[in-house]
Design a protein that fits this description.
Length: 440
């Protein structure tokens, strides 16, 4: 099977099939564009974004029937009316107020709404069901979900079968790497397996009068015949990721990064003593690494220094990220620049080249909050901004050269990922900071 010329399916040792490139793909190139079969906004974005295109214009019109769906234009409203809303509008408020719906966990409510949209669509378009049923079933049978709309043409067993594909196939939709909804993108689900050192990433294009489109972009040059993988969750979840793969997707990841961590065994707990912790941070910054050697770490024949292993403990990464975030926010630039440099060194060890973002695949939603803890490309931009703030506040903890260096790297990494999501965002911030640094 071939998809848009650049990628085809090949048999995989485990997990049915894999997507491989059919030709050389350069970093930043668009591999595949995927239409959404169904999407739903997270509750925090409901009423702030159009329920069809998910853009956030200043004004939205409520559906006059249920007053619970919002649209940016008559076209978006008509599209959704035809697709599913005409089937659910009248029953929607009674359904969401029902005891069965209210008893669901937050992620199940999202699933129930997405499933309801899908079933209403399926009632009139049979191939909608076929496209989902072509996807692999998750590792466990999920419980039945109450849906807003039942039809004699869509059996309860089919509804459960469809839902059993959600957990290991659906995606988190994001703008500037912040979650805004969940969606079903069957082509991407059919194609892409996971790797903790992915060579591609998914982004979302929000355009008027159509549901969001997923674009899968090459993060580095990919030779013909190489498997193309996405990250299903944040690879920085170094201790918990294998358990999540087993429980949510039913596979064991055998990527080079996972093989490396298998080889080194349990990661020692980082020291609690502040002086020892500071020393570890210093060693991490001084550790001679080539830029972005996540791949080299995983394949290098040289043993990794055992005294540095605690830096791979999730608690160490979280605490370093918190220190950086708080210190850069509070203007404690010395602490911010040190923790930021250590975090950058760590990201280079963990992530593959040009990694822009947190995990994007939907089941991660059950485990990982979209708290932007681990953003590799975004971290470069944050470091550049912190260095700039430090310079203009004349505290001498950073220089214009440091800010420029980080900004130039951020430009490369986030430039490869390219524009996505809402109109503002990191590329606009890069351009603003670039102007400031040029005129100074
Ligand atoms: C979204 S699908 C990916 C496409 C899938 N290979 C197919 O043939 O339809 C997710 C499922 O693929 C399999 N899978 C994904 N990544 C894998 C990996 N790194 N190793 C083994 N199986 C994997 C698992 O069965 C997982 O539940």
């Amino acid at each position: 099977m071939s998809f848009q010329d650049d990628v085809e399916l090949a048999p995989a040792v485990s997990g049915r099939s894999k997507a491989v490139s059919t030709r050389h793909l350069s970093a930043g190139s668009l591999i595949v564009s995927c239409e959404a079969l169904g999407t739903v906004l997270i509750p925090e974005e409901k009423g702030k974004r159009c329920d069809t295109c998910h853009r956030n214009p200043p004004q939205l019109q409520k559906c006059s029937g249920c007053a619970s769906y919002f649209y940016c234009s008559a076209t978006c409203q008509a599209l959704q009316w035809q697709s599913h809303h005409k089937k659910i509008c009248k029953r929607f408020n009674q359904y969401t107020a029902s005891v069965n719906f209210q008893a669901l966990a937050a992620h199940e409510k999202m699933d129930a709404l997405l499933l309801s949209h899908l079933v209403a669509q399926l009632d009139s378009t049979a191939d909608v069901g076929e496209r989902v049923m072509d996807l692999l079933h998750g590792p466990v049978d999920p419980p039945a979900l109450p849906i807003v709309y039942a039809s004699r043409r869509v059996a309860g067993s089919l509804v459960r079968d469809l839902y059993s594909r959600f957990g290991n196939n659906n995606f988190v939709i994001h703008s500037h790497l912040t979650t805004l909804g969940h969606g079903i993108f069957p082509i991407a689900s059919r194609l892409f397996n996971h790797s903790c050192l992915p060579n591609a990433a998914a982004k979302y294009i929000l355009s008027p009068s159509s549901p969001p489109t997923m674009q899968v972009v090459a993060l580095r040059d990919i030779p013909p015949g190489e498997e193309i993988c996405l990250p299903y969750l944040d690879p920085a979840l170094l201790q918990s990721r294998q358990q999540i793969f087993q429980l949510s997707y039913g596979f064991e990841c055998r990527c080079n990064s996972c093989l490396f961590f298998d080889k080194v065994g349990p990661i020692p707990t980082p020291p609690a003593d502040p002086a020892q912790k500071e020393d570890l941070v210093r060693q991490l910054i001084q550790f001679k690494i080539t830029p972005y050697n996540g791949l080299a770490l995983a394949t290098s024949p040289d043993p990794f220094p055992s005294e540095l292993l605690p830096v791979f403990h999730e608690s160490f990464i979280t605490s370093l990220a918190e220190t950086f975030r708080n210190a850069s926010h509070d203007g404690e630039y010395s602490t911010a620049m040190t923790s930021g440099a250590a975090l950058l060194a760590l990201y280079r060890l963990i992530y593959p080249p040009n990694y822009p973002q947190i995990g994007v695949h939907s089941p991660g939603r059950r485990w990982i909050l979209p708290d932007a803890r681990f953003l590799a490309g975004m971290h470069l931009l944050e470091l550049a901004k912190t260095a700039w703030n430090s310079t203009v506040s004349e505290d001498n903890n950073a220089s214009i050269e440091t800010a420029t260096q980080h900004l130039n790297e951020a430009k490369v990494v986030l430039g490869i990922f390219g524009s996505e999501g809402d109109a503002d965002g990191p590329l606009v911030e890069i351009s603003t900071l670039d102007t400031l640094l040029t005129v100074i």
